[in-house]
Give the backbone structure.
Amino acid sequence: MNDAAFGAVTSRLGDAELLETIRHRVEAAGTSFYWAMRLLPHHRRNGMYAVYAFCREVDDIADGERPIQHKLAALTAWREEIDGLYAGHPRHLITRALSEPVLRYHLHRRDFLAVIDGMEMDAREATCAPDLATLDLYCARVASAVGHLSVHVFGDESDAAHALAESLGRALQLTNILRDLDEDARRGRLYLPREILDRHGIRGTDPIAVLQHPALPAVCREVAAIAEEHFEQSMRMMARCSRRAMRPAAVMAALYHATLAALLHSGWRDPAARVSLSTSRKLWLVLRHGLI
């Protein structure tokens, strides 16, 4: 079913059916975020499902095979949809699902727009070896902005919670980048920063060639050290937040920190080999950081 037909069908759904449709979308995505979302009370969980569904929708646009102008037009349409959401007349099933969370949890329009800004960075051209400042801006938009939305839904709007969103968002995104090197390279993308590549003697920007360079592991270890600093900062901020509210954030931090450790153990000897945590390991981390 194409997007127009899907939208026409879902526009007739009642609130319960709408939430169930969003839930199925999140579950079908098989995301690690689902483990953390399950810790939330029902109404907060539904809010996070809607936030995640929005992020997935715009990410799929940026990662799609359509021409650049089509992608940019689709993202512009999402800006208009967010404007409609805050004006009180959402049309898309996702913005309809976001209507209640936006009001109940005081979600800011600027964070939704920042996520779209980040997706535009991917949509405009294949990112290849950005400088550190550009990489940090990208992480702030596609990850930390989601963190700002999330901490509101979790139930902590404090300055410490927003500082946590800034640092943990960057830590998670850098871990994603280090995990997805091969997948990104096949899309013509390389998120490893130019300054660190230069420092290790990698001058080119062809993603496949960079992944075959013998200095790649040293580059990745240096990026991992930056991610580790963000993890450490997020833990300092976590200690100043509501422990109960931040259980989902603690689980996400634990899952991704463990993934970063597994990547370091792999040494990036084979970037095409997918590093992931076992189900039993994930369950143990959820129990330790989310329930105990």
